[in-house]
Amino acid sequence: MLFLRRRPLLLPVLLCALAVLASRPTTAESDDDGSEAGARVARLYEEAATASRAYEAGRKAADAQRGRAERAERLLARERQEITVLREDLGRIARAQYREGDGLPYSAQMLLAAGDEELMRGQGAAWRADLALGNAVGRSRRAEARLAADEAKARSARKALDERNGELAAMKRTIEAKLDEARSTLQSRADASVAAGSCRSAVHLDGARTHSERKWVAPVTSYRLSARFGSGGERWANRHTGQDFAVPIGTSVRSVGAGRVVKVSCGGSFGIEIVIRHSGGCRTQYAHLAAVAVDPGDRVSTGQLIGQSGTSGNSTGPHLHFEVRVSDELGSAIDPVPWLARHGVPL
Q: 113: which strand partners?
């Protein structure tokens, strides 16, 4: 049966990895103001994000196992039907013997035989009947034994699936708690920086210098577009000057293209922000961040991680405010969505 075949050890390995991540301490060793404190928060966020991905992989493996269990149930149903047919065959054989013997068993017919020829015929009929009955009984017993074994294995597989799903659910709750804690810590440090008007040292994230085959990319990989360019409301003194990407606190923010960091600031309505100048003189701004991973003057490549999203400054919730300007002037902003589309990045 399909669900009885040997399966890869993906799910047990994921469970072990999740258990290690879930058991790691989350409290920083010290509460210093240097880059190490921010780095610890970033590592915690990355660990929680990695564990979340492992959980999703484990959940998919559990779904696949559930599919195998359902296929096994269908096979068991067919086996039960086969046993029903075999039992019906036994009944037909017994009834046929009774009819052919005029209501007498073959042994009685042989005892009442009038001669050797009739006795031989009775012995042949008895042998054929016994053979047919023995074969039918054997098939029925083998099928019933196979059904009992398969049902036991199916019960064991269902029990293991329930246990693994329970472990995954418990670990997911632990992971989500760690992730919430990491995001809260990250944002509280960002708020303190904005209040002080002084940025902490850059948090250099692992894998920040990624290589992209494309010249331009979106500033975040997974998002929901929220406030659009030019929209109005009480949140802004004038029209909205950028495009908002609704993302959770701590989401990695990427440079949309190669360029040089010309500004990293903490304070004001934009909260923590980064401005990058690209070839041709255009600037891109990344605002309301929770942490930065670059310093002024740094050269950045396309897709390089430059910070983590947040809700610092004049912000009503976690998101990335992305802006494109044609010059250093704040009033030179243009709509980022068609600008990115012209550079081969549809949103």
A: none
Residue 325 bridge partners (DSSP): 283, 333
Which residue pairs from 175-180 have beta carbons closer than 8 angstroms and sit at least 24 positions apart in sequence?
Answer: 175/18, 175/21, 175/22, 175/48, 175/51, 175/52, 175/55, 176/52, 178/21, 178/22, 178/26, 178/44, 178/47, 178/48, 178/51, 179/45, 179/48, 179/49, 179/52, 179/250
In three-state secondary structure terms, 345 is: coil
Rounded to whole angstroms, how far apart are CA atoms 244 and 253? 13
pLDDT digits (tens, 9 = 90+) for 8-26: 444 554 555 555 555 555 4
Regions of the chain with pLDDT less than 50: 1-10, 13, 26-34, 103-104, 110, 112-113, 119, 236
Nearest in space to 130 (alpha carbons), one of 118, 120, 122, 140: 122
Closest CA to 282 of 240, 237, 235, 340: 340
Tokens 């810590």 belong to residue = 185
Closest by Cα among 309, 46, 36 to 190: 309
Strand ranges (E), 137-271: 224-225, 243-246, 252-254, 259-266
Name the pTM for this structure.
Answer: 0.65
